[in-house]
Design goal:
By secondary structure, the protein is mainly α. Helices cover 63% and strands 0% of the residues. It has one domain.
């Protein structure tokens, strides 16, 4: 695993949690989120969520992944 990428992911996740500080982890992260190790894609999704002020499950990037896996 790329240690620098993981560090960026952790910072992104902390920023996301701070942005939506009134919600808990179960509300913030979709089922299976922590099992996925594609940190670059997760960073992109988190950034989109913060920029659009929406939860991860409502971002276009996340919905695109769900559609591809169906």
């Amino acid at each position: 695993m790329d240690n620098e990428l993981f560090k960026l992911y952790v910072l992104a996740e902390l920023s996301y949690k701070k942005h939506f500080s009134n919600l808990n982890d179960d509300e913030l992260f979709p089922s299976g989120w922590y099992g996925n190790k594609n940190y670059q894609k997760k960073i992109e999704i988190i950034c989109e969520a913060i920029e659009t002020n929406t939860l991860i499950v409502n971002t276009k990037s996340y919905l695109d992944i769900i559609e591809k896996n169906m």
